Amino acid sequence: MNPSFPDTVKLQEKWQKQKGSDLFNPNALQIDIAKEFMLSYTHQFRVNLGNEIIPLEECLGRVLASPIIANMNVPSANNSAMDGYAFSSIVLSYPSNIELTIIGKQMAGQATQQELLQQFAPNLHCVRIMTGAVMPSCCDTVIPQEWVTVTPQGITFDPLKIQVGENLRLQGEDIRLGDEVLPLGRILRPSDLGLIASMGFATVQVKKRLTVAYFSTGDEVIPLGGEIREGALFDSNRYTLLGMLTQLGVRLIDLGIVRDDPLALREVFSAAANQADAIITSGGVSVGEADFTKKIMQDLGDVAFWTLAIKPGRPMAFGKINTSDSSAVLFGLPGNPVAVMVTFYQFVQDILLHMSGANHTPKVFRAKFDGTFSKKPGRTEFIRGILHRDESGDLWVKPHGHQGSGILRSMSEADCLITLFAPQSQIFHGDQVDISAINCLI
Ligand code: AMP
Ligand code: MG
Question: What's the CATH number for 8-50+209-355?
Answer without folding.
Answer: 3.40.980.10
